[in-house]
Specification:
The chain is mostly beta strands and 202 residues long. It has a single domain (2-191), classed as Jelly Rolls (Sandwich). Helix content is 0%, strand content 50%. The chain is built from no helices and 16 strands. It has strands at 2-3, 12-15, 22-24, 27-32, 55-58, 64-72, 80-88, 91-99, 104-112, 114-115, 118-122, 127-135, 138-144, 151-156, 168-174, 181-191. Strands 1, 2, 5, 7, 8, 9, 10, 11 and 15 form a 9-stranded antiparallel sheet that branches. A 7-stranded antiparallel sheet has the order 3-4-16-6-12-13-14, with no helix packed on it.
Amino acid sequence: MDIKIPELPFPLRTYGPDGHWGYEDGVLTGWAGPRQDRFVPPTGEALEPASDAPRLLGAPEGDFQLIARVTVGFAGAFDAGVLYVHVGERAWAKLCLEYSPDVPTVCTVVTRGHSDDVNSFTVDGSSFWLRVSRTGRAFAFHASRDGERWTFVRLFTLGDEQETGAALVGFLAQSPMGEGCVVTFDHLAFRPEWPRDLRDGS
């Protein structure tokens, strides 16, 4: 199913389990079902197929920034709302507002065959601003309390698999250990440019 959001210059398509995605009055809503996640444990063999969670993704062209305020109805450990980047079945990344495991946290996962897992900082409340940016093969993750001043979180590429096709970018909801959670994304914005400086708050 395709969803067109007026704030974004590209259509979005659903992937993975049914996320009951909906858009109304500037708010995108998705739902993760029980024990839905997208993670390939680094402590063992890659699962076949990879675990999955509801995703809503599109293919922007060129340099960009995708911004959203994310709100999560936290109910279980590691429930999260996510900005997500995908270039292959074993090459993708997540920028999460996550209950990790009992306090809201900005965390990231970059998967190149297996997933890593990095907690950046805890936050107050169930809402936070997230931003993913791209220039060329490079991606950057930022987070913000107010959508104005941004904290640098991570700079990375997704390896050789990235060369084989355009990146898909968008939204994910997860509830790895819980019975499900609702995630909303509002104040959606798209900028066709790379941030002028990754570390100066802009």
